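Entry 14. Ran structure prediction on the chain below.
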Amino acid sequence: MWVRMTIYLFQITILVMSILIVSTIEYKEIKPDVKENMCNKSEFFHVESLSCIHCETQKHLKPSENRLSCICDEFSRIVKNEYSDHPTCAPCSRGEVPTTDKMSCIPCTNLSEIQNLNAISASSRTICDKCSKSEITVERQIDGKLLQTQTCFKCAEGTKASDDSRTCKPCTNETCVCPITTHERLNGDLCSPRSFIPAWLDESGSHMITYNKAALTIESFYLKNNLKLFYFLCKMKNRQACQAMANVCVLLLYQDEQRSGPCHMMRDSKPASDKDAYPWLYYGEGEAPTVLARKKILSKYSLDNTSSRSRLHFKITQWSMNGTWLGAVNSTLSHFCLCNDNDMQTDAAFRFGVLYSHSCVITAKELLRRDTLFYEPHLFTDNQLYAVPVLIRNLKQGNKYPNKFSDKSQWQLVRRYFLVDRIGGIPFKEKDHRRKQNGYPQTIRYLKHSMLSVKVQEDPDGLIYPPLLELEYSVLTYEEIEANIPIEVTFSVKFYMENNIAHYIEVWVGVLSACAVIWAAMQTWTHSRRSGRTTIDVMTLAELCLITAGHLSNVFFTVVSGAAVYTFVFYKGQAVVQQLLPESRVMFLVKTYIIIAYCLKLVEVIRLIWYQICVDIFLVDWERPKPMHQDGNGAATVSIWRTYFVANEWNEIQTRRKTSVAFQLISTVFLMKVCEIEEWSRAGPDLSSPHNPYSPLLRFSITLIIYITVYISQWLFMMGVYERYIKNAIQEFVDVCSIANISVFVLALENFGYYIHGRSAHGFADTDMKTIMTQLQREEQDLVGHRGLLPASDQQTFQISIPSQLREYYRRVMASISTENQGGRKSSGLLAAGLKNKMSPGNIDLERSSQAYQSMNKFLAAFLEHNEHECFQDAKTKALKDLDYEVREKLFVESLLDMEFSDSHDRGVFYCDNGNSFDNVLFYGNEATLVSFDLITFCFVEVLSQNYLLAAIVTGASAAIISLVRKIGGKKNLAKKTLIDERFLI
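Output, structure tokens:
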């Protein structure tokens, strides 16, 4: 039993140890991504471990040509192989070299041909001189026995040495000697009959490259040395030579003004099938509209960023300059422009439905380090490659540039392009024609702008038309290369689809403009009636143009604003393709209409200011004269300070706005820049797409939305809270008039104006503070009469239509105190006139002004009181004895259209208003015009500069200038029309 248990324990112990030993073995399941081209010169690539392993040079090993194993170096022979990657090698003795099969060592022909190399080891290494081109190297006899020395044998006539110099092979021509009279040797070895070489290849023009921008033509070293060889081999159906010939055509930018040439050869020799040696380089003439409208791409793409169909994938076929095929690779940003890229940029560049733009600055000498490679782009979709047509904008045919026109039928589409040409610009020099092409380029042509435009079908499935790669090249001269100037290159991707936004903009502009002109005509008619004009004259037509300008400005800006907001709302956040950003024509229309809207709105604002600083205004003082002394002695006087006080209050509210421009602009810029709402305007369906460029149209729409939102919020606060519970400057002015016992008579036009009834309910206002406070207290307790014009009414403000006789009398009276009759005085104020010496000529003007003021004040007061006896006791005014007015409400249609249908030629009409209609002659009542001007100015500057801060500065400066002009002009007008000295207007 114990023996059996011992055996079991021993077996278990052996099993556990085995498990432990096995578990210590390292299994590399995760291996680094190493490729064979990453190994250095002394390493080979081990396929099983996917790693680079060093060939032991001390054992005379080196990597094989395919770099997948180790072989004996060029000075050693194989001692033992046994089919392994590491043969056993031994160096040959002094004066010997390894045979071709590496199995033996053999001496050179004689000691004079031995060369000692002491660079690798202490012992000398031996190599033999090579045999001449007409000889081969022989090491063994026919039976395989090794010769005593390595020997050179000359090939027989009609044969030549093979490339490895081991055998003699028949010549491809009739003779290995190239007869000069009938043949021509190409590239040193190839002998071609002269009949195969066309005459144009010998013409100097065939080797010329013209750089139109630099006005430079160069005889290219590369074309001079290689063009004949490529042509001959291509005619012999050599594929690589035909590819090289195609590359030469691309190098010329498909320009060949000779009667024949590389581009003519490629165009005339279209490939009949895939097996043809000629490459496909050109699309047919006039084929562009058909090619770009084909519906052969059946892949469906999505705007959803998480979808596998949200990216376009391209494969690029590459060729070297000599026509060697370099394979097809997945495209990156660096295949379409000279900028360095990364995976993030490539991923963002080819996202479906998203605009992309990328630019970088490189130096001129960096282009010298770039290889000249040629590319053909393909769209990789559903395991198929779809050829992407290329449109070179500066392609020249004859004297025309067909690809610069918008007419697609004139476009010449091609297939191949390059990023930089640093080879073609190396000039040919006769003394260097036998040397290798290692000269310095006289000029470099490089790809400056590239754009991939993809048109999406009008289908929610996300189908697309063939993409189009648009390219534009530029040139650097020798001087610019030497100066190493910086150059900017750009790449962009544009997705677009057919939409009617541009059409809708034009239609809506047309319809609404017609409505605006009709509405302007109605307002002009009203303006003419209020101005007393009964016929259409030049002034009427000018007024029609000015009013129409303001309405058209609103129409243009409203239409393009609606289009921009519509695009933003329907583009952002969609996963199924319904709407893409419109093409550049829409943005062109938006910019154009915004510029026009700004100019027209500026005209409207200038007209507004002009009318406001030209209104006629008179302050009617209801205060009765009092004796100067309590005993009744002295002249009866009325204090002027109440009039000054009301005038200053009017002057203060002339430029008051309903909202703050500074707060509006600061809040807008804060939200756009600090809160980064600006990021919403990036050209991507996501709300924020950090790797995409800003869309000007989306920036415009976001600007509108944020600006209007801030304004509405500010307006609601000011109207609903501030002016209701804190301070209402306009209503306070009406109260001030009542307290001061002064009415305001404003004539905005010839027969139309506004009236503020400020007559005190207490009968007087020129008193002390205690009396004033008592009066206000009695008014609060409703112990006095009402303030209104009519008995038992509180209606104090009116729109007025006055008779022509009243206006005529007003004009006649005020003419006597105009500034022209003031003898050069600074102002027409009564106090300023009174400060002059009584004996001065101004004393006469003072007396005249005083009488006119008293007459006008008395006349208007009597008119407002319907008191004919006091008003018309002067013999000169007997004709006005029937002058009177009535108070009534406006009809609904009159209020809606802001016009009057009744005739006020003989009898005035006072229309009850909403309490502050007189603000139409102030900034306060024209808030819509002013805020629209601010908004249009902000958008105008932002659209042109793409800078919110600059837009805010310009808008704020414009508002400040307008306010300053209005304040200065209004102050001078107020002093002139109310007869108040300007120095008392604070």
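Residues 204-428+435-498 form one domain. Will compare against last week's run tomorrow.
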